[in-house]
């Protein structure tokens, strides 16, 4: 029986790359997306590449009440789910420094990247535990980089990293079959950063393939923060 993965934000960017390469390595893929047309286009493209896409599910992280329906649909249609990849998120306003960051931007970015991600994870944990599954978060380091540190985004991911660490410890203490870890893809050219393509940046295909290799390596990564491509110091 094939393993089933649910990738949020899989209609584009890093999420699409992860869905593609997990699918090409034998996983059945559920695409998580906010917009029907974009989701269907992504499903069509993934299938054309040879990926076994078994469906798509609406995921609106900023609306935590709607996530109960998302989890209900997953439980009913895909009871064999064994992997949740928390990839979806928003950038916040990356053009301003901390002094000029708007409070509403902080709230919105935290609401989506942390609160929404936590709510979805919490709702799917019973099914994942039943299937001896895993949770993988796509994130950035909590340590502040001198080269790139948009406050709203980094703060939201630091909260997500704390969530991962607490859950991993609790899983171990309780003897749970669940596993959770976080992955920093490193500098990647996506529309989240305006398709920035500076020296040291990678494309979504490279990151997706390396992410799939990590997930498929057969090792336990409980509580780990794995950097695929660490940020390199600028000259």
How many domain regions? Answer: 1
Average pLDDT score: 91
Strand order of the largest sheet: 3-2-1-4-5-6-7
CA radius of gyration is: 17 Å
Counted by DSSP, the helix tally is: 6
Q: Quote the CATH topology.
A: Rossmann fold
**SSE order, one letter for each helix or strand:** EHEHEHEHEHEHE
Main sheet summary: 7 strands, parallel
Class by SSE composition: alpha/beta
Calculate the terminal CA-CA distance, rounded to whole Å.
Answer: 50 Å
Q: Architecture in CATH?
A: 3-Layer(aba) Sandwich
* Global shape: globular
As residue ranges, the low-confidence spans are none
**Strand proportion:** 15-25%
Write out the CATH superfamily name: NAD(P)-binding Rossmann-like Domain
Give the tally of β-strands: 7
Approximately how much helix is present in the residues?
40-55%
- Report the CATH C-level class: Alpha Beta
């Amino acid at each position: 029986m094939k393993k089933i993965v649910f990738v949020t934000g899989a209609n584009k960017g890093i999420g699409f790359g992860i869905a593609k390469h997990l699918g090409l390595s034998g996983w059945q893929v559920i695409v998580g997306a906010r917009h029907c047309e974009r989701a269907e286009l992504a499903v069509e493209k993934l299938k054309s590449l040879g990926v076994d896409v078994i469906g798509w599910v609406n995921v609106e992280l900023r609306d935590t009440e709607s996530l109960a329906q998302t989890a209900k649909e997953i439980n009913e249609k895909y009871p064999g789910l064994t992997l949740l990849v928390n990839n979806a998120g928003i950038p916040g306003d990356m053009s301003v420094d901390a002094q000029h960051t708007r409070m509403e931007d902080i709230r919105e970015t935290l609401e989506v990247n942390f609160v929404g991600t936590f709510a979805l994870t919490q709702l799917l944990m019973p099914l994942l535990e039943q299937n001896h599954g895993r949770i993988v978060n796509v994130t950035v380091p909590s340590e502040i980089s001198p080269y790139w540190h948009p406050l709203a985004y980094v703060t939201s991911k630091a909260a997500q990293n704390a969530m991962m660490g607490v859950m991993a410890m609790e899983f171990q203490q309780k003897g749970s079959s669940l596993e959770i870890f976080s992955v920093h893809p490193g500098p990647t050219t996506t529309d989240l950063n305006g398709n920035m393509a500076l020296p040291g940046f990678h494309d979504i295909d490279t990151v997706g393939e390396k992410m799939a290799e990590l997930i498929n390596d057969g090792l336990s990564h409980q509580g780990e923060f794995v950097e695929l491509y660490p940020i390199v110091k600028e000259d």
